[in-house]
Amino acid sequence: MILAETPRRKLVTQLVNWGHWFALLNIVIAVTIAAIYILNSPAPGSVIGILYLFTNWISHIGFLTFFGFVILILPLCYLVPNAKVVKVLSSVLAASGLALLAFDALLYNKYGVHLSLNSAELIRNETQTAMAQFGWQQWGFLLLLFVVWLSFQLIVANALWQRIGRVQKRKFGLPISSFFVSCFVITHALHVWADANLYQPIVQQDNMFPLSYPATAKTLMAKYSLLDIEDYQQRKALQFNKTIKGITYPAEPVYCSVDSSKRVLLLSLVEGEMPNTITGLSKFEHHYLLQSSLDNGITTILYGLPELYHGALQSYAPLLLQLPSSMGLSVSLYLDNSSSQRLATYQQDWQQFKQNIFNASSNLSVGFVQVGQLNELLTENVLAQYHVIVTNLVNQDTLNNALLSNITINKSMASLEDIAPTALNLLGCAAQSKAYSTGNTLTQKGNLNYIVSTQGSKVLLLTSKQRIEIMNNGNVRVFDLQTGDEALSQVDPNILSQGIKHLSRFSAKRSIRPL
Q1: What DSSP state is assigned to residue 512?
Q2: Are 439 and 304 within 8 A, CB to CB?
Q3: CATH code for the domain defined by 264-448
């Protein structure tokens, strides 16, 4: 008897062979898309860290894609007896999966989180905002984009099916699979070592890719009482590089128009006691002073950036002063005993500064004043002609430090980093504040429901109920925002991840762009 391979078995064999090569091509595409994660993450800072980044990138994304092939496409090869149907269904699944990966990469790029149940609320809010802004042109463009992407998958699937015999003869399977397996082994071996030694250039990459669960040594160490597992996990989730060696300021070009009829007066009290009330100004209670010193408070107001960046700002003029001045507006600055060359162009003595305000000849006036000077400036005539914001830099021991203003404030919480974006917006500049500040415009409702800043070596994150302090060793302390008492409540890791990504946006770009 002659045993011949049945047509059905032959078709299944061809489909399985085709499926493996189709998966490989999509692994290459997925790895390319996943480069977005790398381009928007901190550089490892060491050769070992870079080696781990490369092997983890290749092996993890390759594993995710191949796993998707095994559970979604491979069963089709055995169950569906029609090659065309298998190719179409596989193309739809591949196009959808890669689109989902691209969406996750963009979500990570913007907010520092991946698709998960914890980020569902954020995604829902962003989707509602986007849908409210989209017209039929945008929806049509997205549909066309997906159709083009699906068509590409169909073309690739069909071309590969027609050439599967020739591809099989190339004998590439063993070298390629060996390469991916080697990357996988190297990745997890390096991570076990890094995890045992808390080697930052590697462990700080743990949350970079979606569904990433690298091998660790903590279970073994905890078994022999060498590690406090709960403390370890908390510290590890909060990797953050607090040493900024360079800055990109602004983070992107700022283009906007200004209104020469607008006048803005920013006053900050640097000596004396802040009045409880000032006639003509309303008090905003939920304003928080997060800076560790008076000088840091002044720098934060001028630049709209936290202490993390102050050391790297030495050679930059504040955009708050530079932009309106370059567009022909009159800018005045009063800062007693300042020898900064960056500010010399705008600085005036007290009499000149005061006269320009009384004459309404200055479009933007920024003054760091004593209480007597504050009372001298805030006349009924000045309040009628200027948008006024008054902040207090004197009491550094009190977190909550009310802000006085005659503008309508629509944010639920505010900090000194919001002052510069607010002033430029009041002058008519509609450029997005994220280009030059970590703050937001006070007159507009923002997407962030928290405040994040730095104070010395600590990262501070304020929500409506909590003050979260992240120490330089990764330890976290949580306090009740109202009472100041330390709390034992859990911290949402997504909010911490979002906050740290938001905070890191201006660190200098190298071969791999930082967060």
Answers
A1: S
A2: yes
A3: 3.40.720.10
Q: Where are the alpha helices (DSSP H) in 112-228?
A: 120-133, 136-162, 164-169, 173-197, 200-203, 218-223
Predicted pLDDT of residue 142 = 78
Asked whether 46 and 201 are in contact (CB, 8 A), the reply is yes
Whole-model pTM over 0.90: no
Identity of the residue numbered 462:
L
Residue 391 phi/psi, 5-degree rounding, is -120, 165
Pairwise CA distance, residues 505 & 502, whole Å: 6
Angle at 204 between CA 505 and CA 221, to 5 degrees: 160
What does the alpha-carbon distance between residue 507 and residue 45 come to, in Å, rounded to a whole number? 14
Spell out the SS3 assignment of 318-357: CHHHHHHHHCCCCEEEEECCCCCCCCCCCECCHHHHHHHH
Picking from 419, 448, 375, the residue whose alpha carbon sits closest to that of residue 287 is 419
Classified as helix, coil or strand, 379 is coil
The SS3 of residue 282 is strand
Q: What is the 3-state secondary structure (H, E, C) of 464-480?
A: CCEEEEECCCCCEEEEE
> Which of 412, 431, 411, 413 has its CA nearest to residue 421?
431
Q: CA-based angle 126:129:134, to the nearest 5?
A: 120
Which of 25-29, 203-207, 462-466 is the most confident on average? 25-29
pLDDT tens figures, 368-421: 999 899 999 999 999 999 999 999 998 766 677 889 999 999 888 899 999 999
CA dihedral 482, 487, 297, 372 (to 10 degrees): 30
For residue 211, is it left (φ>0), alpha (ψ between -120 and 50) or beta? left
In the structure encoding, which two tokens stand for residue 153, read together? Answer: 């998958």
Residue spans of the domains in the chain: they are 7-233, 264-448
Residues 6+ apart with CB under 8 A from 68: 93, 97
For residue 175, whether the previous peptide bond is cis, meaning omega lies within 30 degrees of 0, is: no
Closest CA relative to residue 468, chosen from 458, 456, 477: 477
User: How far is Cα 293 from Cα 289, in angstroms, rounded to an integer?
Assistant: 10
Nearest-10 crossing angle of helices 7-33, 83-111: 20
- pLDDT per residue as tens digits for the range 11-28: 888 888 888 889 889 999
Alpha-carbon distance of 311 to 246, in angstroms, equals: 9
CB 319 within 8 A of CB 420: yes
| Residues present in the chain in total | 515
Beta bridge partners of 370: 271
For the stretch 226-233, contacts whose Cβ atoms lie closer than 8 Å and that sit 24 or more positions apart, written own/partner, are 231/475
